[in-house]
């Protein structure tokens, strides 16, 4: 909290900056997050990453499996993501040539009598999985193993679906803000140009949650076609705190994968992948383009709001805004094991 002296010299105006004063949501909920897209991590490439307030690097081992390890070499602290190389499936430090395997274990230390093998000589390593063209990394504050997985989705089949397109944006907000937006009934009318609040059905299932609603696709409405005719059902599955698969079914079928990864205490990376079902050549590119263009425009509008809003301890939810508190109650499970100070998700309701 910052105090600013008002012009009369006596009154103090309290100016709250939720980022400078400490964001009121716990950092880094436990779960699977996107580290990068598969196509962004080529064989023999070392990719520096900044997530969870840490410096990481991704590379592919000798079998082509994506690996994510801590970026700082334990020898003298060089950053493996800047000048590091992949040698025989191991990541090699640019400074003095130490090598590390996909588990982070030191595998070679040139000119040393023996290869260091203590815990100190290893890199931190992260559990990874690669699915739907995404390298996922597991983050758990207590180092627990994954208790759910993100499945392969049928919409990756190029016989029936267009190749996925994507865009990536960075927002100055918490990962939960981006995710819970999907459960904010009223914003669909203002941001997404729907006729009114969304009618959301919410069914949590452990670390997964199912979300059902209806939408109209405004591109078609704007073209002079009726709302009724271009009404879609929208079925989505939240896979933990960082992955959301959403499908519209109607005159045109689409699928998106929304990926949110905490960068640090201030910023979150958001990637949206999207595709549409092939109908006939000529229309396919238009359907996918309209989906992605609409989504990007809307997310940019939301990003402006997320970047400046603050989480309220007691929002004034109305009768038609039932899903936010349900979502927050479900999402609270991903803060398990966070420190006492951090385990108080202020907006989680008790009922
Ligand atoms: S700092 Fe990495 S090998 Fe020396
Ligand atoms: Fe939204």
TrEMBL record:
Q: Name one GO cellular component term.
A: cytoplasm
Which PROSITE patterns does the annotation name?
A: RIESKE
Give me any GO biological process, just one.
cholesterol metabolic process
Pathway terms, separated by semicolons: Steroid hormone biosynthesis; dafachronic acid biosynthesis; Hormone biosynthesis
Catalyses which reaction(s) = cholesterol + NADPH + O2 + H(+) = 7-dehydrocholesterol + NADP(+) + 2 H2O; cholesterol + NADH + O2 + H(+) = 7-dehydrocholesterol + NAD(+) + 2 H2O
Q: Which InterPro entries match?
A: Cholesterol_7-desaturase, KshA-like_C, Rieske_2Fe-2S, Rieske_2Fe-2S_sf
Q: Which UniProt keyword terms apply here?
A: 2Fe-2S, Iron, Iron-sulfur, Membrane, Metal-binding, Monooxygenase, Oxidoreductase, Transmembrane, Transmembrane helix
Coarse class of the primary localization is: membrane
Q: Which cofactor does it need?
A: Fe cation
Where does the record place the Rieske domain? 32-137
Q: Which Gene3D superfamilies match?
A: Naphthalene 1,2-dioxygenase Alpha Subunit, Chain A, domain 1, Rieske [2Fe-2S] iron-sulphur domain
One GO MF term on file is: 2 iron, 2 sulfur cluster binding
Question: In the UniProt record, does the keyword Isomerase occur?
Answer: no
One Pfam family matching this protein: KshA_C
Q: From what superkingdom does this record's organism come?
A: Bacteria
Subcellular localization(s) per the UniProt record: Membrane
EC assignment:
1.14.19.21
Assigned protein family: Belongs to the cholesterol 7-desaturase family.
Name this protein carries in UniProt: cholesterol 7-desaturase
Identify the species of origin.
BD1-7 clade bacterium
> Taxonomic lineage of this organism?
Bacteria, Pseudomonadati, Pseudomonadota, Gammaproteobacteria, Cellvibrionales
């Amino acid at each position: 909290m910052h105090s600013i002296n008002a012009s009369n010299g006596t009154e103090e105006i309290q100016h709250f900056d939720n980022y400078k004063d400490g964001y009121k949501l716990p950092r880094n909920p436990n779960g699977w997050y996107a580290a990068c897209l598969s196509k962004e991590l080529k064989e023999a490439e070392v990719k520096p990453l900044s997530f969870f307030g840490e410096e990481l690097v991704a590379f592919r081992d000798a079998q082509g499996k994506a690996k994510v390890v801590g970026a700082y070499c334990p020898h003298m602290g060089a950053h493996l993501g800047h000048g590091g190389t992949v040698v025989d499936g191991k990541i090699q430090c640019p400074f003095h040539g130490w090598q590390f395997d996909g588990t982070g274990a030191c595998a070679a230390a040139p000119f040393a009598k023996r290869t260091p093998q203590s815990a100190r000589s290893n890199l931190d390593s992260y559990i990874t999985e690669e699915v739907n063209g995404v390298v996922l990394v597991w983050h758990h504050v207590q180092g627990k193993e994954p208790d759910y997985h993100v499945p392969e989705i049928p919409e990756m089949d190029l016989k029936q679906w267009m190749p996925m397109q994507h865009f990536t944006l960075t927002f100055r907000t918490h990962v939960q803000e981006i995710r819970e937006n999907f459960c904010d009934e009223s914003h669909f009318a203002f941001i997404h140009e729907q006729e009114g609040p969304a009618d959301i059905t919410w069914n949590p299932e452990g670390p997964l949650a199912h979300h059902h609603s209806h939408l109209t696709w405004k591109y078609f409405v704007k073209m002079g076609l009726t709302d009724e005719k271009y009404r879609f059902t929208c079925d989505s599955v939240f896979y933990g705190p960082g992955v959301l698969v959403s499908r519209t079914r109607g005159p045109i079928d689409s699928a998106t994968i929304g990926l949110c990864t905490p960068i640090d205490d201030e910023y979150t990376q958001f990637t949206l992948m999207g595709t549409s079902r092939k109908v006939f050549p000529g229309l396919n590119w238009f359907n996918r383009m309209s989906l992605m263009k609409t989504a990007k425009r809307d997310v940019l509008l939301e990003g402006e709001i997320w970047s400046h809003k603050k989480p309220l301890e007691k929002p004034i939810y109305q009768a038609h805004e039932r899903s936010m508190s349900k979502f927050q109650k479900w999402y609270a499970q991903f803060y398990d094991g966070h420190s006492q100070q951090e385990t108080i998700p202020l907006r989680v309701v008790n009922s």
